[in-house]
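Study this pair:
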Amino acid sequence: MRVAVIGASGGIGRAMVEQLAQRADVEQIYALSRSGAAFDSEKVHEMSLDLEREDSIRAAATEISEISAPDQVILTAGILSEGDSLKPEKSLRQQERDAFERVFAINTIGPALVAKHFIPILPRKSRAVFAALSARVGSISDNRIGGWHAYRASKAALNMLIRNYAIEQARRNDQFIAVSLHPGTVDTALSKPFQSGVPEKQLFSPNQSAAYLLSVIDALTPDQSGKAFDWAGKEIPA
């Protein structure tokens, strides 16, 4: 099996690459990121990809297809906050165009362009997986407290895209699976400013989260395509 991990320099992405490299059933891992990440395994092929540049995404997909196309694409990159310039909104009065554009660029538009260029190089007659990290707060029906407008909306939009891809690709490959995955609250740079109220047992290390998510991906079946699942494999309502 060959796997492309996009966002390989982040906490969860790096942990996934390292764990996949230890598996006997995985022969090649494409570790893609904008900033770069060093891995020791000979199985890992490191590559550059910038979610905000379609030419970068296209070039990476083309290069991979010429080497050996992947069976799975796992997108782990995302953004919630960025210093003082970007913070989750507590009120609609705090909404800003720049914040929406920044969050959607990484959490929604980037994954859409990855799907555009990477789904076509996945297998057409065997199991193929396109998985993107989303968030439980992207669930519309499960929203009880509001707030975090740009982030919630970007993840809800991502979940809709995943559903669209599942429907479209099922016509071409009945073993295609597209899913959104909620990794839990993970001790990474993304969640660091928001960990204070998280119970210790509910804060996962990147290695824990990666292991849970890879286990969920391994167990997925085509009838689950288009849905969202948490780290424990439980379906998250739309």
Observations:
- Residues 2-236 form a domain with the Rossmann fold fold (CATH 3.40.50.720).
- The chain has one domain: 2-236.
- The beta strands are 2-6, 28-33, 44-48, 72-75, 128-133, 176-182, 185-186, 203-204, 228-230, 235-236.
- The chain is about 35% helix and 20% strand.
